[in-house]
Amino acid sequence: MHSIQVIKPGYFDSIQDLGRFGYASIGVPISGVMDEVSANLANALIRNSSHHAVLEMSLIGPVLLFQKEAVIAIAGADMLPKLNNIPVKMQTKLSVKMGDILTFSKAVYGCRSYLAVKNGFKTEQKLNSYAAFKGITDLVKLNKGVILPIGKQLKIFRFGHSSIKVDIQHFESDVLEAYKGPEFELLTPKQQDILLSATFQIVKNSRMGYQFEEVLNLVHKHEILTSAVMPGTVQLTQSGKLMALMKDCQTTGGYPRILQLSEDAISKLAQKNTCQKIKFKLIHL
Amino acid sequence: MQEFNPSYKTFGNKAILIEWPAKITDEILDDILIFKKKIKRHFKGFSDLVPAYNSLTIIFQKPITDFNKQVDILKNIYNIEWNIKNLECDIWHIPVCYDAEFGLDLEFYLNAKKLSIDQLIDLHTKALYTVHFIGFLPGFPYLGGLPEVLHLPRKLNPSLNVPKGSVGIGGKQTGVYTMESPGGWHIIGKTPISFFDVNLKEPCFLKAGDKIKFFEISKDEYYKISKAVEKQTYIVKMEIYHA
User: Fold this and answer.
1) What share of chain B is helix, strand, coil (3-state, %, to 5)?
2) What is the ipTM of this complex?
């Protein structure tokens, strides 16, 4: 079996695929890659299907040892990847040999980076998905010494592939497109206006969601009966705090759902760090 | 049966939210569950159907390009005749140890409610609870039917680590923490039963519409059942419920 060993874990690395569907009615989060655009790009570069599991790395990447040769690609946040201490390109197909060491550092732009390997990571599948989640998969995040099985690798190919130019807007744009959420109309016209014109600062972020600074003008007294939520659902607490739910979010929630981010906006938000600011732009079906 | 006229809302471009009147009743629950069964049989293109107190959310595999057409199809499906007798459900008998060792908030709760431990156990085990839906944590049942005398607002400061199996009361609800998790309910006991096991073909034995009845066990029995659950030899007592 081909495999990769973790020499030093990063800030938070986990194996993810497109998510775990069909189990929301028993309370199992969808999970999956936070930035589908970048993860799909990494897979596509080595002609994987978008369903192949990748390694998601946040803020600071790990140090990895290849126990056999492999074909890989990296996309998303730039964590200055180096192969045996020599910088390598992102957004391109790379060939690594047995014993090679791949090192990632702190992201210079973006928040989450993706490592794809030919034929995907082959950690244990639970409920038809590789996506790591506490209580579902045994492996939740990478720790020192963990060995990650990977799929069958093809023969090493010649170097010399050009790298795809990164769409910098994906990382720099602060505009998130969103649909009206089911409870959008609970807001007063003035509050709707604030929601769609103000900038919101991120105060906390995790795979469960992004929390924004409280906005006094958005304080309200509406309560709803607990109902379904999804990745991309933007909830508003009574104290005026916005929360954009992300891939590991619960399946149900009790706060008004005032916006629903587009899929592209979920990917863009996944590249934002705490303290950065964003705006919402309304789009329609 | 079709006395409700649920409304249909867009929920982003990959989901449709169907809503009933904002109330928690068994009639609405039954109507949601019958509609869910019909959708499963007659509708295509969805990955998840998520029921809640007064709603059913259909999550699609691909973006929806024809919302109005989908709603028309759903309205037709809602009106299909359905034999109500198909909606029988199970009553699950769940052992709970109400010992102070497990009931981490028992003392506070009993003081606040001015109840004795025996009164609490009597009231909590006498009631028949309805599983409205599963959410919050994998396998976590939202239960209706907690007697009003047992209602108590949630804790002001939620606990960071509520142990798996803890039985709690929060506001008008009671329930079981199916995994270790942060939580704001008052913990009054613990069950040795595992409500969610990812390695089973059906990870969660409860389903929306089922009933739950708690019964009291001693600490000795708790540990005995715990061992049996670990060895997968304990069978949760179940009976068919006829309304």
Assistant:
1) 25, 30, 40
2) 0.94
